[in-house]
Amino acid sequence: MYAGGDKSALAYERSACPMDYFAKLRAANTTKTEEFPGLVVLSNRSDVEGALRDWETFTSAFGGINGQDEPLIPLNVDPPEHVKYRRLLDPYFAPKKMASLQPAVDKHTNDLIDQFIDKGACDFSEDVAVPLPCSTFLSLFGLPLSEFDQFIKWKDYLLRAEAFTSSSEEADVLRRQTAVEVCTLMATEAYARRAAPKDDLITYLVESEIDGRKLTDSEIVRTCLLFFTAGLDTVTVSLECIFAYLIAHPEARKMLAEEPGSEINLVEELLRSETPVQMVSREATHDLVLPNGESVKAGDKVMIAIASANLDPNGLEGADTIDVRRGDMRNFAFGGGPHRCLGSNLARMELRTVVRRWHDRIPEYSLAPGEKVIWNSSVLRGVDHLPLVWA
Amino acid sequence: MKLRIDAELCEGHGRCWDLLPELVDADDHGHGFLIDIHASVPPELEQKAREAVRACPERAVTIE
Ligand code: HEM
Ligand code: SF4
User: Fold this and answer.
1) Is residue B56 in contact with ligand 2, taking CB distance under 6 Å?
2) Which domain holds residue B15?
3) What is the 3-state secondary structure (H, E, C) of chain A?
């Protein structure tokens, strides 16, 4: 058992410094942790790489997440069904398609910066990292900006219901209620698009076919609901991770300010070293013995610690150091195998656009005096408040 | 030196066409493909080709 204090202290320790936390975990050579009691945590590079690909042993088809009984699409579906959904969805999230959304994201970014640039201060998390992916989503879904507040509320209730309720039962009810509201909106929008198609994701889903038939309302809704869980907070925490790194690294800020284009490798390297989505979940389909001799039973919940694999130098020299100029470090920030993040091209475009625009307009900045960076303890590793100041 | 992309292994992480747009493009699914499967890697791109090999999370990019 890897121990080191109580469960939440460990979670904070992990978020504050994944590099040290996971190095200790790998050195202990065990899958049993106090932070995740009862779960199998895979942390070394080769176990993680193997498990991401081996969907037959480590299945994602274990029902739904975030208050859903039904599987979300494509997250909780395995091949061969999974392939059909991905074949349909991948083109919509392909690089060229995402490039066409870039001007909208660029505009959203500039609009956000306009609101505070003259004040010389902002809370990066609240003023940029949270709203940016939400506006992007509204563009993607073809929904009006008036839905913005609603979207923010929904994704908070879906992902952080605990913060708004006083018991886990209440949290569960809130998650379920929210899921119903999201599903109702999406079903209503789908209905409207059938009558009046637009150039947006919902129309694309409504018109798509799989196995020679149209997608059902249930399939469309379960896909859209997953986008909420998968595509908002992930981008938020990634931006927070990147800017938390930048305020502590003046030479990286200087590079960004002086060298347009340098954000590409920087984003990639920080996605790797900070791994905003620290782990992904699976379930074992049969009994097995891991290379370290520990056994896993059919039905065991498995956490694949991609954050740990990303930093494991065993198999990739230099993985335990950070160099924002290099872009060639194999990296599981977006997962791997069949469930590799559908939104990775969108996410990269959003992260690069914000980092570029920000440094064009605010090249030098720092953490507000007297403030500290306080990491949350979530598996989505972020900083809820990042107060910045500039001259 | 020749670059290879194993379409069976590729999951569309997009690192190859990002790092080596001179030789690799993305298809409609975001999967990398060689612009010219017969071409050798020109000497000035050999270093970048090695980087693309290292960066592919699925180990689908190789050089021979
Ligand atoms: C930097 C931001 C993001 C990170 C770090 C991230 C990370 C990940 C990871 C690690 C997975 C794998 C889950 C697993 O294996 O169980 C995943 C899956 C997924 N992501 Fe992202 N993601 C990001 C942004 C997005 C965005 C913007 C979208 C927009 C639609 C999105 C949609 C999805 C979907 C649909 C899946 C499920 C894919 C499947 O199961 O086939 N993600 N993401
Ligand atoms: S980097 Fe690898 S997985 Fe990604 S597109 Fe290129 S070949 Fe495919």
Assistant:
1) yes
2) 3-63
3) CECCCCHHHHHHHHHHCHHHHHHHHHHHCCCCECCCCCCEEECCHHHHHHHHHCCCCEECCCCCCCCCCCCCCCCCCCCCHHHHHHHHHHHHHCHHHHHHHHHHHHHHHHHHHHHHHHHCEEEHHHHHHCHHHHHHHHHHHCCCHHHHHHHHHHHHHHHCHHHHCCCHHHHHHHHHHHHHHHHHHHHHHHHHHHHCCCCCHHHHHHHCEECCEECCHHHHHHHHHHHHHHHCHHHHHHHHHHHHHHHCCHHHHHHHHHCCCCHHHHHHHHHHHHCCECCEEEEECCCEECCCCCEECCCCEEEECHHHHHCCCCCCCCCCCCCCCCCCCCCCCCCCHHHCCCCHHHHHHHHHHHHHHHHHHCCCCEECCCCCCCECCCCECCECCCEEECC
What is the predicted pLDDT for the residue at A5? 54
Which of A340, A346, A348, A349 to mutate to test binding with chain B, by most B CBs within 10 Å of its CB?
Answer: A340
Q: Which atom of ligand 2 is nearest to the CA of B15?
A: 1
Nearest residue in chain B measured CA to CA from A98: B30
pLDDT at A1: 47
The number of domains in chain B is: 1
For ligand 1, atom 27, the nearest C-alpha belongs to: A231
- Select the residue of B29, B51, B57 nearest A331 (Cβ to Cβ): B57
* Whether domain A7-389 has CATH 3.30.1330.10: no
From atom 37 of ligand 1, which residue's Cα is the shortest distance away? Answer: A75
Domain ranges, ordered by start, for chain A: 7-389
Residue B47 sits in a domain whose CATH number is 3.30.70.20
Predicted model pTM = 0.96
Q: Mean pLDDT per 10-residue run, chain B (64 residues)?
A: 96 96 96 96 97 97 96
Q: What is the mean pLDDT of each run of 10 residues along chain A (391 residues)?
A: 64 92 97 94 97 97 76 95 96 94 96 98 98 94 90 89 90 91 92 94 95 93 90 96 98 98 98 97 97 97 98 97 97 97 98 98 98 92 96 91
Cβ of A264 under 8 Å from any chain B Cβ?
A: yes
Question: What pLDDT was estimated at residue A365?
Answer: 98
Which ipTM was obtained for this model? 0.95
